[in-house]
Amino acid sequence: xxxxxxxxxxxxxxxxxxxxxxxxxxxxxxxxxxxxxxxxxxxxxxxxxxxxxxxxxxxxxxxxxxxxxxxxxxxxxxxxxxxxxxxxxxxxxxxxxxxxxxxxxxxxxxxxxxxxxxxxxxxxxxxxxxxxxxxxxxxxxxxxxxxxxxxxxxxxxxxxxxxxxxxxxxxxxxxxxxxxxxxxxxxxxxxxxxxxxxxxxxxxxxxxxxxxxxxxxxxxxxxxxxxxxxxxxxxxxxxxxxxxxxxxxxxxxxxxxxxxxxxxxxxxxxxxxxxxxxxxxxxxxxxxxxxxxxxxxxxxxxxxxxxxxxxxxxxxxxxxxxxxxxxxxxxxxxxxxxxxxxxxxxxxxxxxxxxxxxxxxxxxxxxxxxxxxxxxxxxxxxxxxxxxxxxxxxxxxxxxxxxxxxxxxxxxxxxxxxxxxxxxxxxxxxxxxxxxxxxxxxxxxxxxxxxxxxxxxxxxxxxxxxxxxxxxxxxxxxxxxxxxxxxxxxxxxxxxx
Length: 497
What we know:
The protein is α/β, with parallel strands linked by helices.
């Protein structure tokens, strides 16, 4: 049976439709039996396409005699993907037919021509990417609408800038008032971000998806100059922080918002200011410059709280859970004394939980330690130590690293390989992958055997708990404890043993 495959990434007037591709391919079947597969809206830069994968699966089951496409780049634009695909075609004795290029994969010349064409297909894709990058840079310099998500507080309207039809943001009255409220609240030094979140939730103000505002979304809003009515003070601010201001100083008259860009492709980003590029936008701003600058400077001056669930600030990390909502308790450290507190991550991010508040980490650790020591005393004496790493494991890691390097070198030579060289490369790559799989499995089994520490292995830690190192306490905790549910009044440990 013949398989017909068609693909179209974008439905445009100058591109051939999937239906037309299939009609061209039908002619090659000469009235024989065929099955069609097509992917609409997928790029050819990789093989992550549902219908293509379905076709390959049936091909591997021996159901295909030929694969027919309208043009080579309809099935692949990647040299490596195409080489792998052709290897599978040869393995399952499947011919490949391109209606436009008229390839015959049964001859060495046909295979060589295919390799050459796929090189140019990839070149075309990379050229398109470069044109898109250049277009972004040009549009950015003129302040044109760059597409993408429309920020909260705005809608879109069509305009003409320098003879080019584009779009611009227009303030949406209700959402714009919410933006002004957020900035005015945070500009008041008496209000924290948490206070702003509480006020919005208490007022029933939600985002466009109907969900509560979070701390992260509020901070993103405060940092974004798209909302400010940019005047000379905004111009001076960005000059002082090392941004490149592309609009003339005389244009900053307190009316328009700004776009802030970074990167070679001109894409927008609001987080880091040094080396960024600022341009006056064609839309009207929402927030007065003095209020916006007060928020922005306050945000820059505030050091972020160190909130982490990594095993750095407490040996309870990963095990401590909120008794009310089940979310993890994370460590919060704050000046001036930088004491450690445990807080519910759900509460901290969205004020969705009010069970624990802030709990002193030292007190919680002491309570858990007492229960662990009591549990350890019920065991005997330490009967085994944590084994050192098996030398075989280190050897396997080194060998796997060497195989990965060799494989990368082989794949880089595909572009200049002839038919005989391609055969050798494919054979060696297949051999490397088989060896990698075998050694990876052996390494995994070694690591599992080393990780198997039973309760008796930590039994004699009860008497010397206070002198144990941080990582040793973590080891004991992981062996004995499934999780710890903590509230203001209780600490409940779920034991593994």
